[in-house]
Amino acid sequence: MAGLGEGRSPEAVLAAAAARLRRAAEAELAVVWLDVAGEVRAEIVDPPGIVVTPRAQLPAESETCAAVEYGGDRLGAIELTGSPLQTGVSRLVREVATAAASLVHTVVVREALRHNVAVATAQRDQLREARRDLVARQNAERRRVASDIHDGCQQRITVIAGKIGLIRTRMGRAGADDRAEAVRLRAELDGDIQDLVEALGAITSGRAPPRLDRIGLAAALRREVRGLPVQVEVTGDPGPLPGNVQETVYFCCLEAVQNAARHSGGRSVQVSLRREPAALFFKVVDDGTGFDVEQAVQGAGLDNIRRRVDELGGRLELVASSTGTRLTAWLPLVGSG
Questions:
Q1: Considering the entire predicted model, what is its pTM?
Q2: Alpha carbon separation from 17 to 42, 59, 70, 100, 125 (Å, rounded)
Q3: pLDDT (tens digit, 9 = 90+) per residue, 58-72?
Q4: Contact present, 130 and 41 (Cβ < 8 Å)
Q5: Rounded to an integer, what distance in angstroms lies between the CA atom of residue 88 and that of residue 304?
Q6: Which of 320, 332, 326 has the alpha carbon at shortest distance from 244?
Q7: Where does the pLDDT of residue 87 fall: very low under 50, low under 70, confident under 90, or very high at 90 and above?
Q8: Looking at the domain 4-99, which fold is it?
Q9: What mean pLDDT, rounded, does the chain reach?
Q10: Is pLDDT at 111 greater than 80 in this prediction?
Q11: What residues contact 107, with CB distance under 8 A and at least 6 apart?
């Protein structure tokens, strides 16, 4: 192993040793195998340029293969192949393997450090990306909650306040009709307040309101879209559905309707529900001005819809033009919990 002190790299010294060993043994091929961080690779091949078959493990010791050990650890192996091989090749290979141990240790430690640095760098980058994604999702969720409160709950509060004012006015009059109307408005007010409580619970928890199970998907959607600044028509009644499918359709339809109310500039939205033996279809169509699907497809609202549909193995199609937007989705019923 003379030559290490001449400024040559460990690989250069190992390559020269492998070449001398191959010539001395009259072998066709000499390979120095290394185990770097659990990955076995042919670090030195002589003659150079020959492609060797990759290995999952270091080759076993034999007459033409010797293990390279350092500090009790097996770091690699030196292997000769081909014929003719000179007599005493086994002793020669073992001697070279023993002499090369410190060099192999240097290479393995250095390459393991490089590997670990690369892994740590990749993990750091992944962590940064995950952190950025988490912050973006949190910001999007905050915007969604604020928007839902503004577009949904605030309108309900306005309606409740208006009815309270009407009740006070009616109660201040002496007529029987006025008092009867006040009683009727008071009864409506109970339902309006319950709707508000359920809407707030759905916004903060991300779960569908209890009435979805009580009155069904179509009725719950009709009740939820009351008071929006667009006319919403819900057609079709799919009947009882698996809970996860029902919640997915409920939230996706509401998201699409609210998107239309906020951004489309249209006056009406049509929601269609259709059940088939193995699938549920829903469609949301507005008469707004449309948008660029390629640019808007990554919006938070559309991302939420796409994520929910994907989670159930469904399909989503979005078509927009200057005359409106159509969102169509298909969800499988077979295998849904």
A1: 0.49
A2: 15, 19, 18, 8, 40
A3: 999 998 999 999 988
A4: no
A5: 72
A6: 332
A7: confident
A8: Beta-Lactamase (3.30.450)
A9: 84
A10: yes
A11: 10, 11, 14, 34, 43
Per-residue pLDDT tens for 230-254? 889 999 999 888 888 988 898 889 8
Q: 215-332 in CATH: which number? A: 3.30.565.10
CA separation, residue 203 to residues 137, 141, 189, 197, 212 (Å): 15, 10, 21, 10, 14
Residue 290 has pLDDT above 50, yes or no: yes
If you average pLDDT over residues 269-287, what whole number do you get?
93
Percentage of the residues of the chain whose pLDDT score is greater than 90: 31
CB atoms under 10 Å from CB of 8, counted, come to 13
Are the C-beta atoms of 151 and 230 separated by less than 8 Å? no
**Cβ neighbours of 315 (radius 10 Å):** 13
The residues spanned by each domain of the chain are 4-99, 118-204, 215-332
Q: What's the confidence (pLDDT) of residue 200? A: 77
Computed from CA positions of residues 155, 321, 238, 329, in that sequence, does the dihedral angle turn out positive or negative?
negative
Assign 69 to helix, strand or coil: strand
Alpha carbon distance 330, 82 (integer Å):
63
Residue 46 pLDDT > 90: yes
The residue with tokens 């996706």 is 252
Looking at residue 62, what DSSP letter applies?
Answer: B
Helix extents (H) in 228-324: 243-259, 293-296, 300-311
Q: Which residue type does 328 have?
A: T
Can you read off the two tokens belonging to residue 82?
Answer: 């081909």
Integer Cα distance of 97 and 276 in angstroms: 72
